[in-house]
Fold L-lysine N6-monooxygenase MbtG.
Amino acid sequence: MRICVIGAGIAGTLLAWRLRSYPAVEVDLVTGVPGPDATAASGGGVRGFETHPEQRRLAVESLAELFETPGLLDQAGYTETGSTYLMAGYDGLEDAVAEVEHVHPGSTEVVDGSTLRRLGWHGLPDGTVGVLEKRAGFIRPDHLRALVIYQLARSENSRVVTGPVLGLVPHPDGSVTCRTPSGSDRYDVVVVAAGPWTPGLLTGNALPADQYRTKAIQVAVHRVAGALPTMFVDETSDLYGRPTADGGLLLGVDTHRWSVPPGSSAPIHDLTAQAVRLAGERLPHLRLLETAHTVTNADCYADPPVLTLWSVLGSTHRLFTFTGGSGGSVKTALAASRTAANTLLGTGTNTRTTTSRTENKRMTIMEPGTRRSTDATSLTRYHTIGIGAGPSNLSLAALYKNVTTEKLALFDSRPVAGWHTPLLYPGVRMQTGWMKDLVSLVDPRHELTFLNYLVTSGRLYALINSQFDSLPRIEYERYLAWATERLGVVNFSSRVDSIAITDDGFEVSVDGTPVAVSEHLVLGLGTRPVWPDYVRNLPSGRAFIADELGVRMPDLEPHKADPIAVVGGGQTGLECVLRLLGSGFTDIRWLGRNQWFRSIDDSPMANELYRPSHIEFLQGLNRSKRREMIVDSRYSGDAITPGGLRALYQGNYDGLLTLGRFPVTLLPGRDVTSSELLADGLLRLNCSTVASAAEHHDVRHVVVAAGREHVQAPFSDDLRERIDYDDDGEMLVEPDYSVRWKGMNGHRIYSFNASRYSHGLTNAGLTQLPVRAAIVLNSMFDREIYPISDELCAVQW
């Protein structure tokens, strides 16, 4: 069966994605006119409660699929904010809420006006009630849409065809011809999912479109001061909004402007001012600062307001529309696309009951570059397999592609490209310069330099003129994602759980199934957060690692005046303190074990430690002397960015001017030894101090930033027994980053990030990424592919 889906918004792309997973189905997705659309303009809000019964069912089921499919949850960029839905009470509301509760127990409740006032809402009409929903938030629909389109374009049974549609011709047998700039194709089924372009497309081809109307939508993102609300809809004033990922507030108000042209982007005069005025009345504690940007577009509406299939010409033809929601199809598109696909293919019930483990894996949207073996009896053979797709292995893959035609693949457990994503707060900066990217130190003419990323993405002048002392860490992550997409060698959502040695080489298994074999193996496994014993007995919602701070922030909002502790005196600890300080917390205790919170030594002499010449020098020392020197110089890198400490002190002083006291108390020389939950609900941290005196701190929450530990390679028992280990139980790593092991037979294992006391401070950092990768390639191919020259050095080690 050949099916054409017209429209590359979130509804159309998800429908095409569903259809292509069925056997014997070929799908073409026809894109529309280039430019902004409703998906790009969408606020991305997702929740379960809706007042319309069918809309509610689809929203509940869509939210359930998100939560039950971790890969999809990550790929959609879900951020939990909670939701508040304000309206006049009506008969049947309790039953409606019970429907949400049935699928998401403990998530939803109805509250009265007095409770809403305690939550900060004011000026509400008498009789207003609120539906509070904990498991709600927003996704990044444009990002999800892009991932789907990328996969459709590279699938064997789907195509992405450049539009616009120039003509639709229904035939007597029910088939439909679709004409685009690239030609005409005849399909068994055509579905028009073109959002606000739907009415015009139908009427332009003499087809009925009376039930559809277009409507203007406009939202603005504001900088704010004060506690942010949850995502909300206020039916009593037509105001709606949600927090943004960078701490701002997206606000909109119903435009009541119908029959606008699709793609309309002309701002509606005074609408933003109206939203600001209403927000000031409803949320007086919230202070709106400047408007960061405004987005205006159009979407398609119908009656009833449900995203569903509609037959255009009745049952004799297979021409449908898939649009006509209430303008918020993001909330319902997952379930609605499943229902629509089932209806089109006659596969039975349209109501979702559960999502199996198999379906979760099949329906995961893979990041660009994904390749997964589906036949465990016919393994794909590679020259080199890398475990992990972090900066180290990406650097290796980038240099590799320019010097050999041999095949390389990287396997990574994450669903999409990322780098310490949970810690990427706005304002967080890198500790290395931008020239130290994946390739430049050994191949500055490579296409994957950071400079080329800036030029091709149009960001060069904006970044230069921003005059950053240190690069934003979010920018570096985006650079890595850009490079990953262009390399096309990463298998995401592929957690390697076994590496065995066979006669054919290294056999790699994912989820217990062998998927690939290779001549050589490169380990780039990275690190994971340390979870100290002294906080393991505390409630997980009250004590958590720094990586969880972002998702925990909505729960912490009501406790901004309560004491909160950050344990860990390194860079991550500082970033958590800055995030809390910037979010309005007024009693932050920062505890660290060292005598003071040390900043990085960024002097010219300290930077000499990060040159190839110093790495070479270290290799000539005996093991004990090398370890002694590395420990002595650790604070040249394992410390805090000086600018970060300056930002903390300045923010703390600003707090002093406002509060009359410092909101952050710095507590160096404290070693937390144990903890306990007190009868009054506070958490007590028991510490030893530099003066050996016992000390305790009672706080409401604890954020643990106690460092990171290496992830161990999942070697089979046989392979693990062949590895040579040192006295500390660590793998013995040679100067060329190869691992010493018995019975190599020409097969080599290389390891990044796990040889600190043999290769020095550059082992796990970003400063020498391409140098390390070049050394490995020279060793792997037994010739000098990339010369490593560092002779012009004034220091004689």
Remarks:
- Confidence is low (pLDDT under 50) at residues 348-377.
